[in-house]
Amino acid sequence: MDGKKGGFRACCFVFALGALENIGFVANMVSMVIYFHYLLKFDIPTSSNTLTNFLGSVCLLSLLGGFISDTYLNRLYTILIFGSLEVIGLSMVTIQAYSKDLRPDITCEKSCIKGGIALMFYGSLSILAIGTGGVKGALPALGADQFDSKDPKGAKQLGSYFNWYMLSTTFGAMIGVTFVVWVSINKDWYWGFFMGTMAAIVGFIAIALGKPFYHYPPLRSSPLLRIAQVIVVAFKNRRLTLPENPDELFEINDIDKYQYDEKLPHTNQFRLLDKAAIVPLETFPQPWKVCTVTQVEEVKVLTRMLPILASTIIMNTCLAQLQTFSVLQGAFMDQHIFGKKFPPASIPIFPLVFMTFLIPIYEFVVVPFARKITGHPSGITQLQRVGVGLILSIISMGVAGIIEVKRRDQSIKDPFNPISLFWLSFQYGIFGLADMFTIVGLMEFFYKEAPSGMKSLATSFAWLSLSFGYFLSSAFVDIMNAVTKKIAPSKKGWIEGDNLDESNLNLFYWFLAVLSTLNFVVYLLCASWYKYKEDTAESETESRNDQ
């Protein structure tokens, strides 16, 4: 890697965009449910589902940004193109919040979003989701590309990079959930959206200024095409017999070809896919008749990742529910903390403050200490880090249910003297720690384990997990209401209507805690089954030496 490029100097521009772009994104993430409910006249379940569907779309579309930045454009150009769409989407949201003609009439009570208002509303959210998702799919990998993971020093720096990237986005989130949310609720919504738009513009200018300092890995052919090729050829060769010696499988032993690409050794998992690398009788085989061992191993790596991805979805479903319903809980609580009124949407400031102190402590104290014991560059493995996050998420759901019982009992007993909003900081604080362990662990895991040429796409798997979590959370609310209507003595769903005091949100939280516990058991099985690329390479070498 060029000594004049890359490293933390180049990452400073990535950190700048991570912070500035996150100001508006996180402010919208925590407050839009209130905007939908009070200004756009959605009921509580619809407000919650609309927000989670939007956030799920953002995370899902990160795959598009990752795919393009691996195949057609470098990371920087991908970020700038999708960033332009994000700015356009934010501008449209700002205009709708400003113009009374583009908002429902104040007297409207039901089905208020229609006609031109609906076109503007759904159009702006769609463009914003595409732009934001594309940026998030390429940005983390742009920073990670600045380090050589094959070098021991670079491997340590890569682990540190993901921690500092998380810290930069945390700084942006702190500004978003405090100042921007306060402006939105106490001044006007369009001012909050406008501030998020301007912060994003400054961030994209900053990332563009770093162009001379970035290291760009070479683009490769479409990862989807390579995956499809392995599957198709393996299916065509399904009746053929695998050779006893894996060295007889097809491989291109060209040093120039693998100067930048990673040559993966053969492994014994998913042997059925090895049939795609059976050498045909032709002297010069066509691409769709044979695949290289490295190409087959790329598909194996992605296949091993899928159970890990699936087993983190439940946690992200809980995260989505906690984000939306905690804000609605806050609307029924005493919003004065230390004598000053505190917007419910700003409650996430508590875990963000904790994370601001805990991330440096983790980086400078925990990691060096754990590194001495384990010898791992990151202190503990990425999957161990994710496991800690899953345990914390279970605890958070249990605490959330207890606090909801306390809130509801006090509200029913004395509605004019509700409990303090500060109580929500406990569930948010624990979940903030869970997020710190899980999201960073997943991004580092997917980036390090991904084959070269699929780094952005694989890193986006962390966002894909969030996406499924958000979409499932919408279904959870609907399914839970439908089921509990039938089995509850009151014939009412756990979460329905506009009054949380008549709901059983605590039971919903505890249900998620039980579900998360079962999910953690599944995760342990998946994590214990997974073999890191380094481990599979070493075990394969040892098995060959024994033969």
Walkthrough of the structure:
It is a multi-pass membrane protein. GO terms for molecular function: transmembrane transporter activity. Keywords: Membrane, Transmembrane, Transmembrane helix. It is found in: Membrane. By secondary structure, the chain is mainly alpha-helical. The chain has a two-stranded antiparallel sheet with strand order 1-2. Strand 1 and strand 2 form a beta hairpin.
What topology emerges from the helices and strands here?
Layout: H1 7-39, H2 44-71, H3 75-98, H4 115-144, H5 152-186, H6 189-209, H7 223-236, H8 293-311, H9 313-330, E1 336-337, E2 340-341, H10 349-374, H11 382-413, H12 424-449, H13 455-459, H14 461-487, H15 505-529, H16 533-546
Antiparallel strand pairs: 1-2
Tags for this model:
547 residues; mainly alpha; Growth Hormone, Chain: A; 3 domains; two-stranded antiparallel ribbon; 16 helices; globular; disordered C terminus; MFS_trans_sf
Write a short abstract of this structure.
This protein has 547 residues and is an all-alpha fold. 69% of the residues lie in helices and 1% in strands.
Report the strand count. 2
Please give the order of strands in the largest beta sheet: 1-2
Helix content: 55-70%
Strand content: under 5%
Which architecture of the largest domain per CATH? Up-down Bundle
- Sketch the major β-sheet: 2 strands, antiparallel
Number of domains: 3
The CATH class of the largest domain? Mainly Alpha
N-to-C span:
37 Å
Instruction: Please trace the helix and strand order, writing H or E for each element.
Output: HHHHHHHHHEEHHHHHHH
CATH fold label of the largest domain? Growth Hormone, Chain: A
What's the average pLDDT?
82
From the alpha carbons, calculate the radius of gyration and give it in angstroms. Answer: 25 Å
CATH superfamily of the largest domain: MFS general substrate transporter like domains
Structural shape: globular
> Which residue ranges are poorly predicted, with pLDDT under 50 across at least 5 consecutive positions?
537-547
Coarse structural class: mainly alpha
Number of helices: 16
Transmembrane segments: 12-38, 50-69, 76-99, 119-142, 162-183, 189-210, 305-325, 345-365, 386-403, 423-445, 457-477, 507-526
Membrane topology: Multi-pass membrane protein
Family: Belongs to the major facilitator superfamily. Proton-dependent oligopeptide transporter (POT/PTR) (TC 2.A.17) family.
Organism: Gossypium tomentosum (Hawaiian cotton)
